[in-house]
Amino acid sequence: MASTLSPTQLAVTLSAISYLGQPDTNSQRFTVMNQAMAATVGNDWTIVWGPATQGEDLVYVASNGAGQYAVVVRGTLFDRIEDVIQDVRIGQQVALPFTAPSSFSKALVSKGVQEVWTNINNMVSSVPGSGSGSLLSFLQGLTGSPSLLVTGHSLGGQMASVAAVWLQSALTNVSSVLPITFAAPTAGNPDFASAYDSLFDAAGAMRYYNTLDVVPDLWTVDGLTSIKSDYAGGPKAGLVVKTSVDLALHTLSKNNLTYTQPSASTSLSGQLYSASGLGAFETEVNDQHRALYYMFLLGIPLETINQLDAEWAPPSQVATRSVG
Fold it and tell me: What pTM, to 2 d.p., does this model score?
């Protein structure tokens, strides 16, 4: 099929594809993801490196065979938002674990970001029919001055922003590096955000977030505070979520830490699914956060989204649900 997707639509679709084949081996994922790519993106896009995994982290590289490549980082798999909020790895900020431009000399990222980057750096692709070796060595071997899109959803988007800095610094053989992220939590301190803005402003970097998605509110103070009163007219955060938010805020205050999102951002106006019953808030969070919903909010037709999940539907087509 011929692709009619914009660069942003391409990025969010590739990000959604990264979640496919969760119980499978990487070789099985390679087949499943390529089939999904052919059905949704088309235009000769296929996986050329990976998918590779380390722990719960996954990365793959896709290309259209015409000098365009995409590095796609999968988000962390989670069922309940309080598990993410309770991530104590935000309580320590560290220097970037790789060589970066001098503008990043004061940039700090969370300890959790450092740990995931280490996983990505240590990944080795060994899928038959796909590129081999480490991610960096594979990209360094590309010829013809290709362009590089770096993308991901959720914590994958957070890591894509950091990986873009790494690859911009490490690669001399690419014509451009463009980070586009979706539903990304905050990666680092104000110095990281400002240096990131300066580095990628001309390239057109963009962060997309659904106004009803809780995850992009992590880890700024204002964002965390807002979670406790989210979903006016819908389900409310319970004691466990509120306690988790308060503990995260205490961690930031105790360690005198500040997290700041990059400036270039685009908000997407979500609509409530109106879940009800026990666990309704968590269910609403998961619904608002899904990469499939971001595809819909970015104008991708439902029939295309259903190629990735035949049962998914937007809020307007889903009746009020009782959960618990």
Answer: 0.95
Q: What is the pLDDT of residue 324?
A: 42
Give the C-alpha separation, 287 to 323, whole Å. Answer: 13
**DSSP assignment of 269-293:** -------EETTHHHHHHHHHH-HHH
How buried is 197 (Cβ within 10 angstroms: 0-12 exposed, 13-18 middle, 19+ buried)? middle
Q: Which residue has the tokens 């990304």?
A: 184
Q: What is the pLDDT at residue 1?
A: 45
CA angle 239, 243, 244 (to 5 degrees): 120
- Which pLDDT tens digit goes with each residue over 262-271? 999 999 999 9
Q: Mention every residue, 6+ apart, whose C-beta is less than 8 A from residue 223.
A: 186, 216, 217
Structure tokens at 57: 């982290």
Are 122 and 54 within 8 A, CB to CB? yes
Integer CA distances (angstroms), 137 to 49, 174, 269, in order: 11, 13, 40
| 125 membership: H or E segment, kind and range | strand 124-125
* pLDDT confidence of residue 278: 78
**Are 228 and 187 in contact, with CB atoms under 8 Å apart?**
no
Neighbouring residues of 169: CB distance < 8 A, sequence distance ≥ 6:
98, 99, 100, 101
Q: Tens of pLDDT along 81-132? A: 776 876 768 999 999 999 999 999 999 999 999 999 999 999 999 999 999 9
- Per the structure block, which two tokens stand in for 4? 């009619």
Residue spans of the domains in the chain: they are 7-309
Say if CB 46 and CB 62 are below 8 A apart: yes
pLDDT digits (tens, 9 = 90+) for 215-263: 999 999 999 999 999 998 889 999 999 999 999 999 999 999 999 999 9
Mean pLDDT, all residues of the chain: 93
Q: Residue 113 and residue 270: Cα distance in Å, rounded?
A: 28
126: tokens are 């060994």
How many CB atoms are located within 10 Å of the residue 229 CB?
10
What is the CATH class of 7-309?
alpha beta
